[in-house]
Amino acid sequence: MHKELNPTAPIGVFDSGIGGLTILNELTRQLIHENFIYIADQAYMPYGTKAPELILQRCIQITDRLVQQGCKAIVVACNTATAMAIDTLRSRFSLPIIGVEPAVKPALLHSQSKHVAVLATPVTINSPRFRQLVYRYGSDANTLLVPCPGWVELIESGPSNSEALRAFLSESLQPLLDSHVDSIVLGCTHYPILKNELVEVTQNRVSFFDSAAGVSRQLLRVIEAHRSMSENRTVHLFSTSKQNYLAPFVNRYISSLKVDLIESVHLPLPEVNKLELETSQA
Ligand code: DGL
After folding, report:
1. Of 3, 57, 82, 197, which shows the fewest CB atoms inside 10 Å?
2. What is the pLDDT of residue 160?
3. pLDDT at residue 162 in the model
4. Which of 23, 24, 100, 190 has the most ligand 1 atoms within 8 A of CB, as the residue to mutate?
5. Low pLDDT (below 70) residues in the chain
6. What pLDDT score was predicted for residue 273?
7. CB burial class (10 A; 0-12, 13-18, 19+) of residue 122?
8. If one looks up domain 11-100+212-281 in CATH, what number appears?
9. What residues does ligand 1 touch, defined as CB less than 6 Å away?
10. What is 104-209's CATH number, 3.40.50.10810, 3.40.50.1860, 3.40.190.10, 3.40.50.10610?
């Protein structure tokens, strides 16, 4: 129980970049009186190919910042961060922390062919937490686990030549169609940003599943007794990158989201982690 939560305090949401905005968009639609603070860790994206210890340290740092900013609950709007850090965050911080997991269960329930694919970052795919999830729900189905290195950077790099993008996606997904996959889980919060292109290249032959609605329901349950009734809620976005490039994405992908502030926030890694980061990227 979290009896001491202040109802008007904001809800903190974070991701390695713009992916979590697909979750934030849903949260702001469902929780219309709540205030939100979003941190996009664009200085250190992508998470999905980094060392687990680094992702963990970063998640602790960002959560700490959101707690200092007075948040009453935290949404880890990143599958990779959830897989690497949710247990540690819950044991270190006393406020409610909601994570995001690939929507494996609904996809398997929906699948007629019982051939389901999960697209996610390499770190998510290789994580014990994700393996357990697949094992729990996927034992009677053929579940293809598809690591997608490079997709997050592609999405973060902004609107690309759509012909080249479609060709890339088509080539990536054709083996899944050839394997009779009829349901695809978008197991990274960045991927729903490509939803239109994905639907187009698969020619409506598959259904796509993401986790935004599930996260929103879970958040509602957790803060039920601590809801804000504010009539003038605020949504503040921060990027850890100096070249704060959140605004063009908000305008392009979620123009329905009314944002009150977009700024950069300086959140450097401790020196020891910088060294590890350089080593892990060498
Ligand atoms: N949106 C993050 C996720 O859901 C992307 C991780 C990354 O930066 O690679 O996994």
Report:
1. 3
2. 67
3. 84
4. 190
5. 1-3, 140, 159-161, 270-282
6. 60
7. middle
8. 3.40.50.1860
9. 15-16, 19, 45-48, 78-80, 121, 124, 152, 188-190
10. 3.40.50.1860
